[in-house]
Amino acid sequence: MRRDTPAALAIGALLLSAPAGGLPADTDADPHGLRPGGATTVDASGRNAFSFPAANLSDAERTRFAIGNSFFRRNWVEAPASTTARDGLGPHFIARSCGGCHVQDGRGAPPEVKAGRHEPPVALLLRLSVPGAGSHGGPRPEPRYGEQFDNTAVRGVPPEGRITLREEPVPGRFADGTRYTLRRPVYGFADLAHGPMDPQTMISPRVAPQLIGVGLLEAIPDAEIERNAREQAAQGGAIRGVPNRVWDAFAGEMRVGRYGWKANAASLAHQSAAAFVGDIGITSSRFPAEPCMPAQTACLAAPRGGSPEIDDRTLADVVFYQAVLAPPARRHANDPQVRHGERLFADARCATCHRPSYLTGASPSAEFGSPALAGQRIRPYTDLLLHDMGEGLADGRPDFGASGRQWKTPPLWGIGLLRDVNGHQRLLHDGRARGVLEAVLWHGGEARASRERVLGMSRAEREALVRFVESL
Amino acid sequence: MMKPLLIAAFLCACLPAWGQAPAAKVPASAALKPVLAHHARLVHVSYEDTLASARTLQRAVLAFVARPDEPGLQAARRAWLEAREVYGQTEAYRFYGGPIDDARGPEGRLNAWPMDESFVDAVQGRPDAGLVNDRRVRIDRRTLVALNERGGEENIATGWHAIEFLLWGQDLSDDGPGARSADDFIDGRAPNADRRRQVLRVVTDLLVDDLASLVRAWAPGAANYRARFERGGTESLRKLFVGLGSLSRGELAGERLEVALASRDQEDEHSCFSDNTHRDAVSNALGIENVWLGRWRRADGSVIEGPSPRELVAARDAALAERTTRQISGSVAAAESIQAPFDREIQGGRDGRGRARIEATVASLVAQTKLLVEAAAAAGIERLNLVQPE
Description:
heterodimer; A: alpha+beta; three-stranded antiparallel β-sheet; 25% helix; globular; B: mainly alpha; two-stranded antiparallel sheet; 14 helices
């Protein structure tokens, strides 16, 4: 069981006083990328490593961080309750708080399967859709269960059912003869409350990712993402990333996608408000309706915690809180093995998609972002583009412009601290990979040549490559 | 190459993140050891006093559920309020992964907030809500613990605030606490009164047991957390300061005061059923002062004192130690000026100066946190942020 006591509020974070003054301009002061978030970077390790505010925040912004933190981490409760600001959980939900899945602002994991048995998933959800387009060209919800499966509900409302999970071994071998066995998860459903699903239902499992640097990613100019796509296309090889274009409820228009495993959300505000309503059952002005489907009568009849359940200002504080979560400094960057790994990373062309570095522009929104995020030389190791990752990883479920074989390149910063923060290193969209090397071995499609290079590496080279990624 | 960032953000690129502080600044162990030993004694004694006050509450609850009536309910409420005064001071030992809040620590079960009222009992508009009114649910310790841990999430139906909700009921009035009647616990006068009595009893027993585990973890002469803490040197001192700083800035100033100020029109206060939130602020502020001064006032009025972090800092920088002492004392005074009920105070209070009183408390706590960071540096703690591998 994962226990995230409120005690672990990570407010050691707030011990930091803000350094006075503005931002340094981009300089070559950090050629080895020791400060992945530029001036926002914090020196942090251990369980709270992902929970610190940007080092260059003002005192007033730190207050806002504390408020956002409270509403991010504290449980929402069933309505009605005396704590009117914090009621409205469900009727259907997956977690009681943002922090219930993003434990310590970190990453979720699928349940461990032991002897065919497992606990219900907590920080992993299953998206559902049927063929065809839904609103704004997005996925079309499954008619009885909606766009995602909710295996929990408030008292008096039946949960939609249970999620089942089994794993299939996928054996393989490195060129040096070393054998490995990957595990492919197979998800299904049991005890469905509203009858069988549409036979054409497509399922996509998604784990909650770590949140450090998400505001910095938002400050990467669109032009840089489009440039990534142009440059990859110009190389004429297999790697041809494309941006997703998705509906943004805050902008009221289609935008370049940045968040989610298929880049199906363009802004942190949209991503957060959609998660509030979809995962916790908390309505907001942009997402005013509880996701109860027409057949789900108990869900439709359940008490509400206000309309909406989270007001615009509180939602903005929670978005701001996430936007300023700081990337921690790199560890062991000058270690010879890490430097060796860095060269191998480049040789295997990992950096084509896991683009190391950007200069951030202004936060796109004064309401949700901070001037502290602007003008920073950051090192997230992503191109924010969609890539065909091959049949092995495909979920077969399109999402706006993303096909059933495409996934967004996830940023790599913080991967080496996942064990500190969350006690695991389960990677990829459904957490199937146990560590960096397994994640690499699942790469197919456009990344096939890179995987082949890694398969040909010696043990020492593989270890150096992993060590480099874990230093980020 | 860099701006002179403040201590905690200091970067030494040549060392791993847990690099050692420069040797010259590490306090001589001769001075540090007695401070840690005395602090451990202070923590132990204060948990003993907390446990004793919780046992008084437990006796009051047992007497009340045996013969529920209005005087018995009042007595249980008084015992709860008195026990909170003591417990609140012990919150200065949180936030560094000690016995109260390490991965298996009871903090979540003891002090979870907000309280999931309708998960436990009837609320306005939902007379049949809660496990009290669901006779299919067994009420015993095991079931309650299991319900709370469902799905690996935070706890929702045990601890101080669950007891508070059962004793006071929902706070539905503008200027007073919850007004639950003793009738809710009397068979024939309220549905499921037997189950309400049983839940109250079980959550109180659980609270007492969890507090007893903290006394054991800090007991002298045992192979326990205290023994490791006393041997821990600078790392233990760092933990002590992390606890003080986190409670000052993040929890008390941030989570309890600033968050409430920001959501002024809502019942966003920690002890909302009893309207006791103003005392939570005072007891937290006092808890910080206790640790800094190495002082604890026992229930019988006697005071234990001994080598303190203040003395350790004063040996390096007497003026800084004095400023810190004054600021911490000022925070206690500022917190004491906050008037009850807190939910009125955040809207201005009776004289319209309630928000200013809370803002002044926040400002003092923020200032004291900065001084504590400086004080920690003077005592040889360079980087408070870092959690070292255990």
